[in-house]
Each structure stands twice: as structure tokens, then as C-alpha cells.
Amino acid sequence: MVKSIHCLLAVSLVLVSCKIDGKKDEATSKVFTSVELKVDGGLISGVQTDDASVLVFKGIPYAAPPVGSLRWKPPAPVVPWEGIRKCDVFAASPVQPNPEPFYMWSEEFLIPKDPIEEDALYLNVWTPAKKVDENFPVLVWIHGGGFSSGSGSVPIYDGTAMARKGVVFININYRLGIFGFLAHPELTQESNHKTSGNYGLLDQIAALKWVRNNIERFGGDPNNVTIAGQSAGAASVAFLVASPLAHGLFDKAIAQSGAGILPRSPGAGGLSLSSLETAEKEGLRVSNELGAVSVNELRDLSALDLFNKVRFRGHPIADGYVILESVHKIYRDGKQNTISLLTGWNQDDGIVMGGFQSSEDYKNDIQEQWGKSAIQLLKYYPATTDTIAMKSQSELQRDLVFGAQNYTLANILSNRGENVFVYRFAHDLPDGEQVDFGAFHTAEVPYALNNLDFVDRPFEELDFKLADMMSSYWANFAKTGNPNGKSLPEWPKYLQSSKELIIFNDQTKSAVVGDSLQLDFLVKNLIDRNE
């Protein structure tokens, strides 16, 4: 529950004044809880929690609305406004399908039903600061959703609990689907950098630049920024670490169940990058299907028409500008930005859409897709019965799309001397009236952000203790680059030689990666078949 900061008029102290370039002036030691705050674009007001422990600012614009002539353009500067902009409600979610619960994802994991609009480049800030010069560490959360859904307004991404642990928490919206990732030869030609398609990643970079320029005004430290995300948000994190355009905007990264740094796997999809040439061909298909002879004709279409009249599932690409080349090659050659890393994946991350195959059909598909490697793969992921084949399909999907990706990211960075900490989330969420999906994809997020109160499940004391523990690790990592802290089980630093990680379950403890042989097998095969 929140109440308007305007009710503090009677007791608020001198207005905190900050220069637009982010440098502190003589007033920076004054009390923060004032009715106005100046950011790029103008003055804003926010709300505070009932206990006055956290100030919340929702729907802050970090770029101009990407509509009309700005559709499929890099994010433009914020449009200034007059007066005080009330930032007390979430802005619209980016254009995407209407949210409907499915599989394991109940409404707490989804965006609100409305508003959903093309004008959606906004971010949200939760700060524990009482004064501007407190220099709290900053954690910027990038939502998941396969680059086609999601928003900062998803309930489990609320930042109140993390702010109470001493972190300025921010989450952001960015362009999705056809609006965020359409490449086209004409778009490439009109670009100063002769590229197109990565508008969603450019939005994320613009949001991080906004953080660098403005976060001091919220009591945050622009020199202590962690980027974090899950699924497509975690892949975004890995891509930003690889991007020269994001250099200097953060120094720590958290990638949960996703990295997208290995080549696309046979039969499993994933979040790896396509080439600009391939993406442009897909863009031509879109324009031909819509009967548009130019990009301007595409820009003239309404967002609803564009979204509804064509099939397009976009994702980031290796465009030679935002991402210079293969992400795996960037990491392998040590060309990524220098960071500390916290990463991991869930025991039941595997998502098998459309149902499981019989053991015979599964074996036939593996032999067709994996060729001479199929015999060994079926030893790791067997199909002796239908029940065993079902389990193997789930585990193979988990490891191809998530496990092997995060495992590879951890190995590469630890071998380059970076501080790396790896986890496995193995705690089954309580079922209640839900189907038992175990430690499913996204299940760790409300624990990591201490947001179980937003999830309608019959949680017990053990769950709340685990959430408090995990969120403390996450907050500590944002503060120092090391998740360990007082009264927490020791989380060992990850080295490829020892392969130690921490397992979050009923009993949280350190262990060795138990399935490293099959992960090594998958990694080698994915790299060999694409090089």
C-alpha cells in the first residue's frame, strides 16, 4: 500500500535540487523526502510505502515514445514536460499478447490486462534513501518473456522488498516482438550504423544510461550498478555484457535461467542470435505479407494492425553494432565487458510445449537431430520407457536452453579470473490448487526478490525463510560483488576446476555440479556443429 508523497507537504524539508547532468550540487546532503525530484525531462513526484521506508516512482520516461516516425529507430531523448509529472502508477506494458495464465504461470507472473501500448519506454524506481548522497547500490531488473512479452509491472518484479535490504531497485520496459526486433534492408540502409533489428536491446542500454545520469538523485550510486534478469532478461544481461555500447554502465551481472551464448540447439530452440542477413530476410517476409512497399508504409500501420496481421517472433541479432559477432566468440575471445557474475538455473526449467513424445518417437528424433552423437546423448537422457523418456525430454530441454548456457557463461568468466557464483534452484513451489510443476521456470524469481506475498500459493515458514535468504544473497552481491554475508550459508566461489555451487532447497547447501558430464557433452556438440 502506498500514499501520495504530496501528503508530506506539511513536514517535508527543503526540496532536493540536482543538476540535469547528474552532478550533485550544494544541496545533496539535504533530506530526500521532498515532494519533487528533478530528472531528465522535468520534475516528478512519487509515492511512499505506509511505513515510509521506501519511496516509489512508477512510470518514469527514459526515452521518447517510439511511435510514428520513431518506430524502429534507436530510442530518442526524453520529451520534456511542464510542471510536476505524477509517477505513482505503472505505465503501459509494451505491445504483446493479452495476458492469460497458462502452464505454471498464474497471473502473478504476467502483466496487468491493461494498458498495453506502443508508447511504453518507462522505468520504475524503488529507493530506501532518505538523503541524496547515501550512495546505495543499484540493481536494474530486466524482465523475461522470450522477447515477446513481459513488463516492469509484473507483480513478482516489485522492488519494495529489495529496497528494504539496502538496494535502489529499478525495473524497465523495452520494445518487444516486431516493435523491438524487426530488421529490414530499408531500416538498415536508413541507419547511421547500417544495421537494424536490436531496438529492444538499444532500449535497455538507453535505460542504463538514464540510470547513470539520474540515479544519484534517488540516493543511488551510479558507479555501483548491477544488471539482473531471468530467461530472456538473463539473455539480455549476457548480450549487454557482450556489447561495446554498454561498456561502463554496470560492473556486476545476475543471469537467472538464460544466457543465449551457445548456438541454437537442434529441436530445442533457445535464445541464441541470428545474423543480420537472416533477420533482414524475415523482415522482407513481414513487409511482403502485409503488402507494404516501404518501411514508411509499415510505420503508417496502427500498432494493433501490425501486431495482429502478421506472425513474427523477434529476438536479438548479431548486427555488427550492438552485438558485433557471435556472442560465444565474444566471450571466448575475452572481448566482453568486465564484470562479477551470479548465475544459475532451476531444477525443472525444462519447458516441453505441446506434450511429450513416446520413447520411440523421442529416440527417433534424437537420432535424426544429433547424428553420430545420438548414442551418447541417449545415455545421458535415456528413453528406455515412456516415463523415463518424458523425464529425459524435460531435462534435455532444460539443459539445452538454460543449463548449458549458464554453465558455459560461468566457466568462461571464471577462467578469465572474474568473480563467479553459481546456484541451482531445486525447491518445489507449494501446489495448492495448482498443478505440480516442481521448481519450474521463473519459480525462483519471487524468492530471489523476496516477493512471495505477491504469489497465491500456500507458502510455509520454510518458503519465507528461503526467500529472505536468497534475496539477501542477491542484495549482498549488488552491494559488493560477493553474495556472502552474516548468518548466511557459505556460497563458494565458482571455479571450473572444482565446479562448486549452492543449491537452494529445503536445506540450502554447497555442492558440486552433479551433471557436468552431460553439460560438457552438450556444450562441445553445440559448438562443434556450428564452427
Task: Explain briefly what this protein structure is.
The chain is an alpha/beta fold and 531 residues long. It is built from 15 helices and 17 strands. The chain has one domain: Rossmann fold, CATH 3.40.50.
What does this 3D model show about the protein?
- By secondary structure, the chain is an alpha/beta fold.
- Mean pLDDT is 91; it is low at 1-30.
- It has 15 helices and 17 strands.
- The longest helix has 30 residues, at 386-415.
- The chain has one domain: Rossmann fold (3-Layer(aba) Sandwich).
- It has helices at 160-164, 177-181, 185-190, 199-214, 232-242, 276-290, 295-300, 303-308, 327-332, 359-370, 374-380, 386-415, 445-448, 461-480, 516-528; strands at residues 2-4, 37-39, 42-45, 47-49, 55-61, 84-86, 122-127, 136-142, 168-172, 220-230, 252-256, 274-275, 317-318, 340-346, 420-425, 500-504, 509-512.
